[in-house]
Amino acid sequence: MATRAHRYLPVLLVLSLLFPVATQAASGSESFQKGVAAYRADRLEEALAHFEAARDAGLDKPSLYHNLGTAYYRLGRYPEARRAFQRLLDDPGSAALAHYNLGLVARKLNEPETAREHFRAALRSADNPKIQRLAADQLPERETTRADRSPFSGLVSLGGGYSDNVTLQPDDGPITSGQSDTFLEALAAGTYQLQGDPDHGLQLKASALILDYADRNTFDQTYLRAGLEWDRSSGPWALDLAAYGDWITLGGDPFERVVTGEVDALRAVTATQDLRLRYRLSLVDGANRFEHLSGTRQRAGAEWRYDSEAYGLETGYELEYNDRDDLPDASVSPIRHLGYLETRWKLARYWEVDLAGSYRFSRYQDPHRTPAGEVTREDTRIRGEVGLSRQLPWKLWANLEYQYTRNDSNIDFADPNYEYEANVYAIRVERFF
Question: Signal peptide: which range, if any (predicted)?
């Protein structure tokens, strides 16, 4: 009868075999594909020979070392399996699964304490609930309590950049300067597990973003957020209920206070695909000269996501309904339709490329009064983004990003803010913990 460890290892690692990726060398790619085919046919010796040929041809992808380790393990060549899995420990996206597999290898080599250390590391570092559960199954129950996992996770990001049209772009509508400037940016975000675990528990979340322009100080922005999230998993569905408050300043003065309630449902369709449904209700309190923005904002959306080791794709739609106080001669209560597409490629071991695009149509519910008469405002916004990321030592990431935005309006003659273009270039250094 197969052991639990033997059953689980192919289940996890075969995912990388089902989604092979293009490699830098044509010969390595060809050998890798032949190895995939041989593995699927359970011809392990032949598969291993092809994977080794791909490695010798210069292929250097995490998926190759996953597959090498799996083939070595199933053939009983445990020291070689260990060396293959150890190659993945420096890759953030692969480290948790690598620790789990190294634990299985250590057990085969009769190294129980080393195995426990790897299972503990997998449990602490895994974001994937499947890996967390598998690692927990390999440890005594007393070791899988909340005390064995860090209750805190977060992100710190520092960066700067240049905009050729400094623009405040809250959800309520753009305010543009028509002027260029450089900026500095700092972001900190954290989550603390108050009760239970990420699948069944209560979390405290907080974040802060500071945007400081060199000359256009009236566009300096601060975003503060704090709230609670309750998570629950049942079968293929994961349900999140959240409530949080935002405090936003503009040019050092209060801009908006927002209280939001959110319902988020996620369903795993396959091992690499999921469907997300989301609804948010926000109560907005506009400050000072922005009191007309006070009111409610509702959003409902659906998103489909595919995520494999080397490639990711997200696409979705969101409907937004606003009911604001409005101005005497202008509506700030649009109904909006947003469609978006985001994709990610892992080019090499430490490099990633991200591309994103979105289209938003807004129709305001009451007519605007203009010199030409009453006109119902309609806007279209197109946005495109491209990013390049590089993994650095000490769990750091460096990011280069370019963003293009164009907003068109049928009443641009009434206010120059309604129609604009902006190009933003940014560089950031991030650390997750």
Answer: 1-25
Q: What is the mean pLDDT of residues 11-24?
A: 39
* CATH no. of 4-147: 1.25.40.10
CATH of domain 152-432: 2.40.160.40
| Least confident residue range of 175-189, 224-238, 317-331 | 224-238
Q: What is the pLDDT of residues 350-376, one digit of tens each?
A: 899 999 999 999 999 999 887 778 889
Task: Provide the residue ranges of all domains of the chain, joining segments of one domain with +.
Answer: 4-147, 152-432
pLDDT of the residue at 309: 67
Neighbouring residues of 168: CB distance < 8 A, sequence distance ≥ 6: 174, 175, 176, 219, 221, 250
pTM for the whole thing?
0.69
